[in-house]
Amino acid sequence: MDEDEIDYETTERHEHFKGTVISRKSVAAFVVKIIQTPALASRKNLGLNKPHSDADQPYFI
């Protein structure tokens, strides 16, 4: 999404992936956080989504 927001949550491997959308700004903020603190995501399989965006498909389809 192109919304001007930073709002995300992560899921880890073997957790049910929750949401269907994420803003580009949220992804960028998370990448910066990983660059600043590499141990945060080291050797992890992470999913990223907007909280409370659970659905069968993204809302913008």
Automatic annotation (TrEMBL):
It comes from Acinetobacter higginsii. The lineage of its organism: Bacteria, Pseudomonadati, Pseudomonadota, Gammaproteobacteria, Moraxellales. This is Uncharacterized protein. InterPro entries: NAD(P)-bd_dom. It holds the Pfam family NAD_binding_10.
